[in-house]
Specification:
The structure holds two protein chains of two kinds. Chain A is α+β, with helices and mostly antiparallel strands. Among the domains of chain A are: about 1-50, Uridine Diphospho-n-acetylenolpyruvylglucosamine Reductase, domain 2; about 225-325, CO dehydrogenase flavoprotein, C-terminal domain (Enolase-like, domain 1), CATH 3.30.390. Chain A is built from 13 helices and twelve strands. Chain A has helices at about 15-20, 35-40, 75-80, 85-90, 90-95, 100-105, 110-115, 120-125, 140, 165-170, 270-280, 285-295, 305-320; strands spanning about 5-10, 25-30, 45-50, 60, 70, 175-180, 185, 210-215, 225-230, 240-250, 255-260, 270. In chain A, the strands form three sheets. Chain A has a five-stranded antiparallel sheet, with no helix packed on it. In chain A, strand 10 (about 240-250) and strand 11 form a beta hairpin. Chain B is about 25% helix and about 25% strand. In chain B, helix 10 runs parallel beside helix 18. Chain B starts with about 40 loop residues before the first helix and ends with a helix. The model of chain B has no long low-confidence stretch (mean pLDDT about 95). In chain B, the strands form seven sheets. In chain B, strands 3-7-1-14-11-12-13 form a seven-stranded mixed sheet, with helices on both faces. In chain B, strands 9-17-16-15-10 form a five-stranded mixed sheet, sandwiched between helices. Chain B is built from 19 helices and 28 strands. By secondary structure, chain B is of the alpha+beta class. In chain B, strand 23 (about 580-585) and strand 24 form a beta hairpin. Chain B folds into three domains: about 10-30 and about 470-610, Aldehyde Oxidoreductase, domain 4, CATH 3.30.365.10; about 55-155 and about 210-300, Aldehyde oxidase/xanthine dehydrogenase, molybdopterin binding domain (Aldehyde Oxidoreductase, domain 4); about 305-470 and about 620-774, Aldehyde oxidase/xanthine dehydrogenase, molybdopterin binding domain (Aldehyde Oxidoreductase, domain 4). Classes of the chains: A alpha+beta, B alpha+beta. The interface of A and B includes residues 233, 234, 306 and 317 of A. The site of flavin-adenine dinucleotide has 33 residues of chain A, from strand 2, helix 2, helix 6, helix 7 and strand 8.
Chain lengths: ~325, ~775
């Protein structure tokens, strides 16, 4: 059951920042993740600061350089359906469309999607695990079939839950942040925190900092972008394995490949090994085979998620075969 | 004088002949209302939200209950400190094992009696204390504020290791609760006769009941009279369990359950929470509402137990099954609950086979006790048997449908004396199902498809079943009242658990009385105002209640004929009930309208009472089915897409095609959950606690997981011996063969026998890479 809290809905950004300086104040955007977290008591919050009244956080605009600026309060549905997004970055529209379920996409926001808490069942359940300040990661020796195969360092093996973050990383996007001290811009790639750095934090945001907009640079020439996600159930489920591709194409040659995996690691996981094989290559059957292998070569699966190695490999192979073929295999 | 337009009779239609009181009615050869696809009589209430479910009940001065439950799978309660909780805002009562009102109250798991609050909690979620407070939030907060000192004990939650010498003991004694054996014929001889013998071990997961409305109730005392509104499949079971627990006369306990949001077997009886809610209401002298959270229902009020099934089978080249050997084990949970109940029934009874031996081990583990779950035991058994039959068919190079057709039983071999079935529709289900599914052509098409170099592989599969019950039977009593204006009130104790019981019963009454179903008002599921009925479960509600309703309608007609005989001054034997009139056979101008009967006008109403007659002696009434599935597997990603499903069901007469098809589709969807997505996951190696306690982690199939195309093919055989309506049960067979049909289709698509359900993308990838590595 939800704990007691108060709720404010300021209409000035500065006011919101001020409210957030209160101890146990939390940001409320769509609330789809936040309310669940409060109900499960996995975080404290007795003052909910709604962003709903802040005008500057809405809407999708084209930037001067031909990129996009997406307000943090834009709903996931809007991101998935927006013309500009679909034309410039089909991969982002796909990523957004793969999120959760229609109701959650209508209510959840892009900013909230980037800042959501992990879905590890120990974390969400009655287990006082490391990430909640306890002494033990239950997943390392426990039921870890849904957990990470990269980047867990045997500390905490969550997989980052967002389907939009990997695409945004692949598209070199950044977030504009307003805070009590300075306003700053952070590359989405640098937004999330690996457990080795701080097991208690999901993002680098400090108390009182609010993401206002997400900025994506102009699409690279002949950009191919896509997002693919495998899950245990076809809706209302997080990725078992997922991949965002953003390729600058030169004819049938990939001049520059960005590959970011979801369902793989505690943060959106850039597969530099795969990028290296692909960048500068033509997508022959042999390259595809090598690239998909390279992606999982460094995987460190746990007892229950060995299958992810094969799953990523198979999925990436299938995804690479689609490039340049209008998405068909 | 009633005018024609004021009464409610269907015009110009004959009604079934009314038998004399000592005779049974004729089988309906032709029906006018029964069998029609009528929408639900309560569709408006359900869709508009005006239907009042127990969770909607709001009484003046009502307060709320909450429970504190053990967070450990095995722990002793050393001390409870309620002092902080007692002082909290709004708190009106706290009950623990030490409280006077709870001390002597007992609860029963099957035949094992336990105290309401056990000092030794044997499963996560076992009751420790209960609180009543002014709001739900206050109650929950107070329950959290109760301090409990637990001595945490070792636990056993993995039933496959619970019989090991080193395993913790759930109840202090051994963890083997019961072992049941069955045998017929000579197994060795059977295997010796076989041309092919195969053996395999199959496993199914523990599934959790997930009705939309969680378990819960509202309790209210008026002096010494208790009323309980319970989300229940049977109000009389609520009445008797509560009367027993609280030592009250049945007359002092009223249980009401007009609407309820699903149960699937987990609401056949009330829970400890019901007793506690009643005790809290008594202690606070307030109505108390206690609805469980989803987490609580997942922990405490039932599940379909997991199973491990080793099956060995022998077959001759011509398809004759010669031997079946089956050993299964499964967990009841922490208390006796039928952990392996009926898992072996299909092996015993589905196919003709002279030599059969089975054994079933029911095991105790430190987890929530099982409760019946839609077709207890059967989908598990089908998962093993129906895959094994497919494997045998492949080995002897026979079509799997043909192999099943070769072994159709006409009698129930597993029952004493092998009594015949009134009807065995299995042949027609398989034959007509295969025809409508285009089975043979589909195989050719798929072989062509799978031969191409493509990572998307297709397969089709079949699964067959019977359901051990579905015959219904006594007791049941129904009263039908005819008011003097010709309108009708149907009064029955049975619950409508969402299956359309009320609609179907209105159709039966309308058929027999010649009135429009819409003028029939239904009173049901209230122990104070209706008659005794058993809970709605076992697919027996239609075959139990429909014949009773018919009998009540006939008894009503007989009463009316007697009244007409007085008015017309002729012998009652010479009168016929025709439409809205009773007519003398001597001269059809001598007649009287029902609504003009003088006794009816004087009394204001007349009643007919119906009782459920006995089932046929020496014969068995079971429903049969075959389901067919086509799917596609992505061999690179492991994803499975179910393309189409066909359910061919012999459940006797179809009383309403809409409610019939609803069951077929719903059963298939539930079977998809068993086959592909659902699995209770316990933290076996560390804490023994439940990992997936919400709807994200416990994966019910969603709209995107269910078949793109589903069709229902009723195999409507005349079954006049079954009961006076010819309808057999349907609600459970619809989910029995589904998962097995999926597994068989997966085999055709991938060449892998998926022996363990559910088959998730993870399982597909695991098995395919195992196969690749050889
Ligand atoms: C059942 C279920 C299934 C789901 N499945 C998926 C899935 O498959 N894929 C997927 O990607 N997601 C999934 N989600 C997560 C869902 O997409 C997120 O809950 C949603 O995007 C969060 O948006 P929100 O606006 O509701 O955030 P809120 O719940 O309001 O906030 C989430 C968190 O972010 C913080 N926050 C919100 N906005 C900002 C901001 N502008 N600046 C700084 N901090 C902020 C909040 O304080 C809070 O901690 C699922 C959620 C549920 C409940
Ligand atoms: S994976 Fe992380 S969140 Fe999950 S149990 Fe381990 S530490 Fe906690």
């Amino acid at each position: 059951m939800l704990p007691k809290f108060s709720y404010v809905r300021p209409d000035k950004l500065a006011q919101a920042v001020k409210h957030l300086e209160t101890d146990k104040a939390v940001i409320h955007a769509g609330g789809t993740d936040l309310l669940g977290c409060l109900r499960e008591r996995i975080m404290d919050g007795d003052l909910l600061v709604s962003l709903g009244g802040l005008k500057g956080l809405a809407g999708i605009k084209e930037t001067a350089d031909g990129g996009l600026s997406i307000g943090a309060l834009t709903t996931i549905t809007e991101v998935s359906e927006n013309r500009l997004v679909r034309d410039k970055y089909p991969g982002l529209a796909q990523g957004a469309a793969e999120v959760a379920s229609p109701q959650l996409r209508n209510q959840g926001t892009l900013g909230g999607n980037l800042c959501q808490k992990p879905r590890c069942w120990y974390f969400r359940g009655e287990f006082h695990c490391l990430r909640k300040g306890g002494g033990l990661c239950f997943a390392i020796k426990g039921e870890n079939q849904f957990h990470a195969i990269f980047g867990h360092d045997k500390i905490c093996a969550i997989t980052h839950p967002s389907d939009t973050a990997p695409v945004l990383v692949a598209l070199n996007a950044s977030v504009d942040v307003v805070g009590p001290a300075v306003n700053r811009s952070i590359a989405v790639e640098d937004l999330h925190v690996p457990p080795a750095e701080d097991v208690r934090a999901e993002t680098v945001l400090k108390r009182g900092e609010i993401i206002t907009r997400i900025t994506i640079p102009a699409p690279a020439p002949n950009l191919y972008s896509s997002y693919r996600k495998i899950r245990a159930r076809r809706s209302w489920d997080f990725a078992l394995a997922g991949a965002a591709l953003a390729f600058a194409m030169d004819g049938d040659r990939v001049s520059r490949a960005n590959v970011v995996l979801s369902g793989a690691a505690p943060v959106p996981w850039r597969s530099t090994a795969m990028e290296e094989v692909l960048s500068g290559s033509t997508l022959t059957a042999e390259t595809i085979f090598r690239a998909a292998r390279a992606a999982v070569a460094e995987a460190r699966p746990l007892a229950g998620n060995q299958y992810k190695v094969e799953m990523f490999r198979g999925m990436l192979e299938e995804e690479l075969r689609k490039v340049g073929k209008g998405g068909e295999v | 004088m009633t005018t024609k337009d004021k009464i409610y009779y269907r015009e110009g239609l004959p009604v079934p002949e009314t038998p004399d009181p000592e005779n049974s009615p004729e089988f309906w050869r032709q029906t006018d209302v029964v069998g029609k696809p009528l929408p639900r009589v309560d569709a408006y209430e359900r869709v508009s939200g005006t239907a009042v479910y127990p969770s909607d009940i709001l009484l003046p001065n009502m307060i709320y209950g909450a429970m504190l439950r053990s967070p450990h799978p095995n722990a002793k309660v050393k001390g409870i400190d309620t002092s902080a909780a007692e002082k909290m805002d709004g708190v009106r009562a706290i009950i623990t094992g030490q409280s006077a009102e709870a001390k002597n109250v007992k609860w029963k798991y099957r035949d094992q009696q336990v105290p309401l609050f056990a000092s030794h909690c044997r499963f996560e979620g076992e009751a420790v204390a209960a609180v009543a407070a002014d709001t739900r939030y206050q109650a929950a907060d107070a329950a959290r504020a109760i301090k409990v000192d637990y001595e945490i004990l070792d636990f056993a939650v993995d039933y496959e290791h619970a019989l090991d010498a080193s395993a913790a003991k759930v109840g202090g004694k051994g963890n083997l609760l019961n072992e049941e054996r069955y045998g017929r014929g000579d197994l060795d001889k059977g295997f010796a006769e076989a041309d092919v013998v195969l053996e395999e071990t199959y496993r199914t997961p523990c599934e959790l009941h997930t009705p939309m409305e969680p378990h819960g109730c509202v309790a209210n005392w008026e002096r010494d009279r208790l009323t309980v509104w319970e989300s229940s499949q049977g109000v009389y079971a609520v009445q008797s369990r509560i009367a027993e627990a609280l030592d009250l006369p049945l007359s002092k306990v009223r249980a009401v359950g007009h609407y309820m949001g699903g149960g699937f077997g987990s609401k056949l009886w009330p829970g400890k929470y019901t007793v506690l809610c009643c005790l809290l209401a008594k202690k606070t002298a307030r109505p108390v509402k206690m609805m469980l959270s989803r987490e609580e229902t997942y922990l405490c009020v039932g599940n379909r137990p997991a199973s491990t099934m080793r099956i060995k089978a022998g077959v001759k080249k011509d398809g004759t099954l010669t031997a079946l050997e089956f050993d299964c084990s499964g967990p009841s949970g922490a208390y006796p609950a039928g952990g392996v109940q009926l898992v072996d029934w299909l092996v015993r009874d589905l196919y003709r086979c002279a030599n059969v031996r089975t054994s079933s081990k029911d095991i105790l583990i430190n987890a929530g006790p099982a409760r019946p779950f839609r077709a207890p035991g059967h989908p598990q058994g089908a998962w093993a048997l129906e895959q094994m039959v497919d494997a045998l068919a492949e080995k002897i190079d026979m079509d799997p449908v043909a192999l099943r057709l070769k072994n159709i039983p006409l009698e129930s071999q597993a029952r004493e004396g092998a009594p015949p079935y009134t009807t065995t529709g299995l042949r027609q289900c398989l034959e007509r199902g295969a025809e409508q599914f285009d089975w043979r052509e589909s195989i050719k098409r798929i072989n062509g498809h799978n031969g191409r170099d493509n990572h998307l592989k297709r397969g089709i599969g079949v699964g067959a079943c019977l359901w051990i019950a579905g015959d219904g039977g006594p007791p049941s009593t129904v009263i039908i009242k005819l008011y003097k204006d010709g309108s009708v009130n149907l009064n029955m104790g049975a619950s409508d658990i969402g299956t359309g019981t009320k609609t179907v019963m209105a159709q039966v009454a309308a058929e027999e009385l010649g009135v429009h179903p819409s003028v029939i008002q239904i009173e049901h599921a209230d122990t104070a105002t209706t008659q005794f009925a058993t809970p709605s479960g076992g697919s027996k509600t239609v075959p139990t209640e429909a014949p009773t309703v018919r009998n009540a309608a006939i008894s009503l007609k007989q009463a009316l004929i007697t009244m007409a005989a007085e008015d017309l001054k002729v012998d009652r034997d010479e009168l016929n009930y025709i439409g809205d009139e009773i007519v003398w056979s001597g001269d059809d101008s001598k007649k009287i309208r029902i609504t003009e009967l003088s006794t009816l006008q004087k009394r204001g109403e007349v009643i007919g009472v119906g009782y459920r007659g006995p089932n046929p002696e020496d014969k068995v009434v079971n429903p049969f089915a075959a389901q067919f599935c086509e799917l596609e597997v992505n061999t690179l990603s492991g994803e499975i897409r179910i393309l189409r499903f066909l359910g061919a069901h012999d459940s006797g007469r179809v009383l309403n095609r809409l409610t019939f098809d609803n069951q077929v589709y719903g059963g298939i969807v539930m079977g998809v959950g068993l086959g592909l997505t659902e699995n209770r996951q316990l933290d076996e190696n560390q804490t023994g606690k439940l990992c997936n306690r919400n709807w994200h982690d416990y994966k019910l199939p969603t709209a995107l997981d269910v078949p793109l195309v589903m069709s229902s093919l009723p195999i409507e055989l005349d079954d006049p011996e079954s009961n006076n309506t010819g309808a057999k049960g349907l609600g459970e067979p619809v989910t029995i063969p589904t998962a097995a049909a999926i597994a068989n289709a997966l085999y055709m698509a991938t060449g892998v026998r998926f022996t363990r359900a559910p088959v998730t993308p993870m399982a597909v990838i695991r098995e395919l890479s195992k196969k690749e590595k050889g």
